[in-house]
Write a structure and sequence with these properties.
This protein is an alpha+beta fold and about 525 residues long. The protein is built from eleven helices and 18 strands. The structure holds ligand MTE and molybdenum atom (MO).
Length: about 525
């Protein structure tokens, strides 16, 4: 039992219960305020909601090592974990505000108000924000504070004068029924507001319907056919072409940006003689090319799965740049997304005649899925996504590395991000039940734009043995590999390393993803019985 100044001990048990009711009042009032803010945000801009703006600010503020840890622990569930954590913290804070409002008025109202004002400031400071972005948080918290005061008043024995005229205050002794009625009405109002906000944000469903109706033009230059020998078809081995549903997703967007093609345009600007803007229809009228390219995330750990291979359909970025005519001295293209994300890519890489850098609209035969950048994104063979693969891209600014930085560079990641030569063991998985005798080892290896020439496997302290390499369409994609191993009983360490077409052998020294990509030979422990 807690005792507070001014509380008579014999009244302790009921007062303690009143504390819980006050905590409930805090949660209900704050929840109603948040629901109202969500509803207003649906009109202003979905990203102006205190939850999404606050979460986005947390994502931006998180140091690189913590981002790595989150991706390592939760993979692509990291956003759900973040939102869940925020929910728990907010609920606990709201309960505390309710309790404080009962015991130390107006401390609870002040706490709630301060958090709301902070949310408003954070929302208004988002990269894409307008002045209106503060409104949902401010109105939401204002109403939340009034509700909190009104609800908690119902829990007090004295002080029965109405604070606000939302409901006529009862003049009788404290009555839990009035409190429950008001709290119930508030909660019901919150549910209605949330439902309405969902209905308003049905805009995202509208964009999805537009996307489904799109028939992309055929490629003027089709991709080479995938050789039959590119797919080893081994159970547990990542397929040569990654289906869209299982393609890894990495971005800073808590809510997938919903960009309708009719509202989309791409501007090529900066240090160019001929800046210009193209619309969606302009883009589809340009000659499109298809290329298989393996995309990789710089945050991928040794043995990790933040990598996938897809068939991309798009227009060469090189052609767009040629039309804009970059000026002497420019060495970077800063690509910008609707959500404020930017990537800095070397201009020279994007201009290479034999590198398929695409302004992509298609992925594996369909329009880009929303979470992979619909309606348009960049794909650059050989560079990590954070310096090249901008999704929902709307601007290409020709500039200089000395003048501008991509999103991740000031956050501790290298300005340049060439993909590092790497390989992975997919089969068997550590922990699999394996009997002595023939065991098939298999995995993938990648060195985008250089190409894989060989993969070797080593068991314990044995010699490196060359694995069989699957076919590939070219140097821009990963290659599968396999090796049959006559496994003796016991515990064994199996390691893999790749060699690229320049004869370079994969780096053995372990390095973490930051600042420019992990290195080290993927090694797994297998128990053979
Ligand atoms: N708009 C936007 N584009 C982005 C990012 C982002 O955070 N926002 N992340 C980049 C990173 S770090 C990677 S690895 C790739 C991942 O692309 P995918 O999600 O389609 O696999 O997208 C890139 N493009
Ligand atoms: Mo990434």
């Amino acid at each position: 039992m807690t005792t507070e100044p001014g509380v008579t001990p014999h009244a302790g048990a009921p007062r303690a219960r009143t504390g819980w009711w006050a905590a409930l009042a805090g949660v209900v009032a704050a929840g109603a305020g948040l629901a109202l803010a969500e509803l207003l945000a649906a009109f202003v801009d979905p990203a102006s909601s205190p939850v999404l703006a606050g979460g986005a600010a947390v994502v931006d503020a998180v140091p690189g090592w913590l981002k790595d840890l989150a991706v390592a622990w939760f993979g692509t569930a990291d956003k759900a974990v973040l939102l869940g954590t925020m929910g728990v913290v907010l609920a606990a804070g709201a309960a505390l505000a309710g309790w404080l409002e009962l015991r130390r008025p107006p401390a609870g109202a002040v706490l709630l108000g301060a958090v709301g004002v902070l949310a408003a400031v954070v929302a208004a400071a988002r990269p894409a924000a307008g002045v209106l972005w503060a409104v949902p948080s401010l109105v939401g918290v204002g109403v939340g504070v009034l509700l909190l005061r009104r609800l908690v008043r119902e829990l007090r024995p004295r002080d029965r004068t109405p604070l606000v005229g939302l409901w006529s205050g009862s003049q009788d002794a404290p009555d839990r029924r009035t409190f429950l009625l008001l709290a119930g009405l508030t909660a019901a109002g919150a549910v209605v507001a949330l439902g309405a906000s969902r209905a308003v944000s049905a805009g995202s469903r509208a964009v999805d319907a537009v996307r489904r109706a799109i028939r992309l033009p055929a490629a003027a230059k089709a991709a080479p056919a995938v050789p039959a020998g590119a797919e080893l078809g081994i159970d547990g081995l990542d397929p040569y072409v990654t289906p869209n549903e299982s393609f890894y997703r990495i971005d800073t967007a808590l809510r997938v940006p919903q960009v309708a093609p009719d509202d989309w345009s791409l501007t090529v600007t900066g240090l160019v003689d001929e800046p210009f803007t193209i619309t969606w229809d302009d883009l589809l009228a340009l000659p499109l090319e298809e290329h298989f390219v393996t995309l990789a995330c710089v945050s991928n750990q040794v043995g990790g799965d933040l990598i996938g291979n897809a068939l991309w359909l798009g227009h060469p970025v090189r052609e767009l740049l040629a039309r804009a005519r970059p000026r002497a001295g420019a060495d970077m293209v800063l690509s910008r997304s609707t959500d404020g994300f930017t990537a800095g890519t070397p201009l020279a890489v994007l201009q290479e005649a034999d590198r398929a850098c695409l302004l992509a609209v298609g992925m594996n035969g369909e329009p880009l899925p929303a979470e992979h950048g619909f309606p348009a994104r960049l794909v650059v063979p050989g560079l990590y996504g954070y310096v090249s693969a901008t999704k929902w891209v709307t601007e290409l600014k020709v500039t200089r590395f000395a003048d501008e930085q991509g999103y991740w560079t000031p956050r501790g990641w290298s300005a340049l991000g060439p993909v590092k030569l790497s390989s992975r063991i997919d089969v068997p998985r550590p922990g699999d039940d394996l009997a002595a005798g023939r065991v098939t080892l298999a995995g993938v290896a990648w060195a985008q734009h250089t190409g894989i020439a060989g993969v070797e496997v080593r068991v314990d302290d044995g010699a490196w043995v060359a694995a069989d390499l699957a076919d590939t369409v070219g140097p821009d994609t990963w290659r599968q590999w396999r090796l049959d191993w006559d496994a003796p009983p016991g515990d064994h360490l199996v390691a893999v390393r790749a060699t690229d077409t320049d004869g370079v052998v994969q780096v053995e020294a372990l390095a973490p993803p930051a600042p420019d990509g992990a290195t080290g030979w993927h090694t797994i422990e297998l128990t053979i019985t």
